[in-house]
C-alpha cells in the first residue's frame, strides 16, 4: 500500500511553453501533498505545500505564478510549470501524507523536466 | 549555515561492513527525524523514523538521535550491494509538518 505515482516520468519541452505534472495517491487519501525539486547531487528542496480544496502555500523564493499548484481531490495534485526556461530543468518530486498517519510522507518516483 | 548538514560522500565500503551515516542540525525545534533511501532517478523511500531522542532498530538498520548534540545517525549492519544508494536524513518540527532534508550521502557497497 501507500503508493504515489507521478506522470509523466520524463518530459522535454521548449522554452516558453508550459508543462503539467500530476501526482496521485493510488491507494490512500491525502489531504496534504508536497512538491519538491531536486538538482543533481543536491537535496530535495520544498517548493510548496498543497492542501485539498485550498490554495497552496509556497516556500520563500518560489514564484507562485510560475509554479501553479492545484489540489482538486484527495488523490490528485498537479504542478504546472508556466513559461518554462532552461533553468527550470530539474527533478520534481511530490509526496503525499496519508490521512491516517500523522507524520509519514510517501514519495512519488519523480518527474525529470528538461527545458530546451 | 544550513539547517541540516550531511556529508555528501561518496562513501565506499566492502560488502558485510557496518556503515555509519550522520547528520547534524541547528534547529532545536526539530522533533521528528527520518532516514530515506533514494536510488538514482527515483523518489525517496522511508527507512526509519524516530521521535525525539533515542534508538530505534529495524532489521539491519539502527537509527540514533542525540538531541543534546543535535546529531543523528543511521547504522547499516551487514551491508549489501543492494544498499548502494543515496541516504537522506530529514527532520521536522511536528508530525506531518514540512520536512527539511540533508544533502544526502551517496553510499556504494562493493563486492
What is the helix fraction of residues of chain A, given as a range? under 10%
Low-confidence blocks of residues of chain B: none
Secondary structure category of chain A: mainly beta
Order of helices and strands of chain B: EEEEEEEEEEE
Instruction: Tell me the helix content of chain B.
Output: under 10%
Helix/strand/pairing category of chain B: mainly beta
Radius of gyration of chain B (Å)? 13 Å
Distance between the termini of chain A: 37 Å
Distance between the termini of chain B: 37 Å
Number of strands of chain A: 11
Walk me through what this model shows:
The complex is a heterodimer of chains A (116) and B (111). Chain A has 116 residues and is mainly β. Helix content of chain A is 0%, strand content 55%. In chain A, the strands form 2 sheets. In chain A, strands 2, 4, 5, 6, 9, 10 and 11 form a 7-stranded mixed beta sheet that branches. Chain B is mainly β and 111 residues long. Chain B is built from no helices and 11 strands. In chain B, the strands form 2 sheets. In chain B, strands 2, 4, 5, 9, 10 and 11 form a 6-stranded mixed beta sheet that branches. Chain B has a 5-stranded antiparallel beta sheet with strand order 1-3-8-7-6, with no helix packed on it. In chain B, a hairpin with a 2-residue loop joins β6 (54-58) and β7 (61-66). Chain B is globular. The A-B interface holds A 4, 6, 32, 34, 41-46, 49, 91, 93, 95, 97, 101-110, 112 and B 6, 8, 32, 36, 41-46, 49, 88, 92, 95-96, 98-104.
